[in-house]
User: What shape does this take?
Amino acid sequence: MNALPASQTFPVTNAIGDAVRQLFPASAPAINTLLAIASLLALVAFLPVLLIWLERKVAAHFQARLGPMRVGWHGLLQSAADGLKLVFKEVLKPEGADSFVFFLAPILPASATFLIMAVLPFDHHLQVADPPAGIIYVIGISGLSVLGILLAGWASNNKYSLLGAMRSGAQMISYEISLALLMLLVVMVSGSASLREIVLSQQGTILDWWIFKLPGLGLIAFAMYLVTSTAELNRGPFDIAEAESELTGGFATEYSGISFAMFFFAEFVNMFVAAGLATTFFLGGFLAPRIGLAFFDAVVDFVPGFVWFFAKAFLVVFIYMWFRWSFPRLRVDQLMYLEWKLLLPANLVLLTLTAFFVIRGWIL
Amino acid sequence: MTAPRARQEGRLRRLAGDLLSLFQGLGLTFGYFISPARVITQQYPENKASLRMTPRFRGRLVMPKDEAGNHRCTACGLCEKACPNGSISVLSEKDSAGRKVLGRYLYRLSQCALCNLCVEACPFGAIAMGQAFELAVYDREQLTLVLNQKEETTTNV
Assistant: This one.
């Protein structure tokens, strides 16, 4: 492990902030906060548009189709056009729906994505906040999206919405246990609950990433994280909350216009967030994939860290899409069987084994 | 002790088989993903010149004819009976020897569902589903076709 110099790991300034501070000294205390909020807004607004286009193209090519081809180059502007359409559509409220809760519900998942985005370490100095208990924060915030879905189903005054929301609540609460246990495993091996510290604990070559550093177990843990987070994201093959063919859209049945767009966008940003967390926990986050050869390492070190972060995160996003378009949807009871009878016991065994490995020092 | 172990081995083998099948599925879809040549979607209005048609495509009904313009229809009327929509009328006539031959073969495209039942009913292979699919016209009378003439003409029967 060769630690990075402090100047690189803890920079106190940034170019844009410095320029604005020099021009408007009065804004000095607030400028970094404003910049952080603005960049997060830009990211959260741009990511779903890109991800929805990507999903449609990837899905199409998995099925020997082409996907959107007309709007822009290879349909690049298609999802922007769709988003614009949703913004201009009328927001309808079903009769007998609870107004306040009905319109509060889509805001919760959308704000949860913002809040988790704030602790993702995109680069050495590209992280809005780094709470020492970052993982506990992440687990806590991810509960907000469950709440949003449950409220949406309850307030819609529609049996399909309610059924979808109840299924989804059962699913997400169950799988959160496995997810939390996997995060606990990462905390145990890296010795810290701060997302930044977890990334920095993986410095060195590619073999120092937790997916490889724990012999065998890291790979298993990564695979289990993929399965668990797919279920947590309500994505196929675990998309029983939406289940278009059974529940006509599940909890989102009664939503239209911008409220539906918020659910939809939150779903896709959540996918990126889950991929970003996978990157942080197992794939070395923003660290370059060094392999120990001086020349190769020099080249990959030259590429900025956030490029590596996004590259790895999009690789994981691709795996999520691959899952969705290859596997058939599970039944509700199969889903619960998978979590409570397979994943959870496996997780507990894995955790114990990892503790044993850590004590014996069997780490690469 | 042997029986439970055997059962356990069976279960393990099944689990391994299940896991393998997941990866087989992933491999199959990835195969499609990395080979754009297997994409079957066509960019239709743009690629009119290079349109790839599949042999089993069912466009409108045609009556294949040889070089001399002879068709194989005997005016038996099985296609007319087979048609659920009444879109075929086989109008027969007598030739000079007094045999029943085909007079006019009327095909009403406006009523046709392109179901292929008439082709299946024909014992002589005299009719077939063609490849033409750009069938819009401005007058519905143009949708009633006489198939057995050299130039398929429209009629107002």
